[in-house]
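Journal club side-thread
Mid-discussion, someone asked how the predicted structure for our own chain would compare to the paper's figures. Pasting it here so we can look after the session.
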Amino acid sequence: MKNQISRRSFLVSSLAAGAFPFLPGCALFGRDKVRLACVGIGQQAWNDIWQFESTGLCQIAALCDTDLDGPQCVEALKSYPDVPRFRDFRKMLDAMAGKIDAVAVMNPDFSHFPALMAAMKRGLAVFSEKPLAHTFEECELLMQAEAKYGVVTQMGNQGHSGNNYYQFKHYVETGVIDVSQLAHLTAHMNNPRRWHKWNGKVDGFRSGETMPKGIDWDTWLGTAAYRPYSKDYVQGEWRSWYDFGNGCLGDWGAHTMDGMHRFFELGLPTAVKIKDVQGWNPYVFPMQDTLTFSFAAKGKRPAIDLDWYEGVTNKPTLPKGYKPMAWGKDIPAAKGSTAADAAKSLIPGKFFEMKDGTTWQGGSHSTALFRCGDDDSVPEYPKPASNHYANFLLAVLGREKTRSPFSVTGPLSEVFCLGCIAQRLNRSFAFDPATKQVVGDEVANRLLKGSEGTPRKGWEEFYVV
């Protein structure tokens, strides 16, 4: 701790003197590789690990997963046979003190928060898969921790280091997209999702199943209310349940809304409205619904609505001149979708209308924008430099600033959390961005903090910054 304080004091005094161009709270000046610990090592986490490794900017220094014996962990464990491995991130952080510089948190939505908080309090840089956290309150606390501990942070909406970021930024700054002329915003994701297999017929939490050998179930549950083990909670199925995931919105909103939210300076909504709901029940996300987020005017931008459509048949009315888009490396097929599904579905994406009748269209992740009805030629914009993973590691090394720090992605993730509350309650509500409270709805306000029974006893310490 003494070394961390001395280092922070050195950085502050040096920055005051103009010695460094950036403010990476735990920058490793003079080093060429980041010692990276990984929380979550299977499925998407394994892809993230491979992406980090391929930059040549890090050394994988520790692996942590509550289900190390699971088949999803085999590739990571085989690839790093000599790297220390753990089932509990708390034990990992204690054992690896002084041996790691950053932590990549890539476990389920509801598990991001405690691992991130624990790492930040130790002065470690953190990368979080999207969405940032499971609840509105957790997003607030993570932004407070970022400010207090001064560490490098990044959320894993990878397109925010690609064309999606550079084009939005340049076009808004130069007036190619005139925010004063914005009329309406739309984002959508219309592929099959995990909870569709239940067709809205879930009558309670699961129980009575045999737990696989080796899984640390208590640590897997983390801050969540206790539930007996079920195969329907693990291997990505957690995203189906209100208690564990943020649904389709948390999964794909970060890849379709991020540019609009940041560069149109949307902030927090004044209202969340829900309609067209099918397959609602109190345990898992609806089969389909449409959410409308209303945002107050800011600067030159007028008050504006953003419509979110999810569900296989719940597709938005496409604007005149809309150009069909194809699956590609920038828009990976959704988990659970087959090749046939992908071929006939509307690719996840966005479009926004201007007052003069022009509509801009874009896909997901780093897919570039273009005007509906035009060819693909658009005004030039700066081309991407480092990718999202390299950007994070370079920031830790003191060479860049992250493009998706928690101060930026916290409010975006809070929008998702509010949408999930509307889906869970199947009702609309007003929201006060100033007080950060739902207006006149005690139940919805309680859900800003999470499900009943959270945080679970023994996990309260993570909610103190």
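Post-session note: The first strand starts at residue 34 and ends at 39.
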